[in-house]
Request: fold
Amino acid sequence: MATISLRKGNARLPPEVNRALYVRNLPFNITSEEMYDIFGKYGAIRQIRIGTNKDTRGTAFVVYEDIYDAKTAVDHLSGFNVANRYLIVLYYQPTKMNKKFDQKKKEDEIAKMQEKYGVSTKDK
Reply:
């Protein structure tokens, strides 16, 4: 397999490579068994979490036991077609995820302040 050649070559992985993957654009009705079938081909899986509420449907987190298995899965499954949907498989990067959440939180806070003090950005 490709993972064996990566290990033997002692290749340095980019810093964003992680055992945890963030998967987007999943069919809403996908089951955990189907996820294990798709992602299990590339190595031992520690955990899969599928989004179930309104905001997280169509997303999942997949955590591999080995970082090289995760890299192989990203390389092979990005753009993979599942139920006429192309998967987006990314390395999970908590700092980027938190920045997006913080940005939305700040925007909501600003909107509340503008509403409280009667300031409108549409006047400009």
User: Anything to note?
Assistant: Residues 1-5 have pLDDT under 50 and may be disordered.
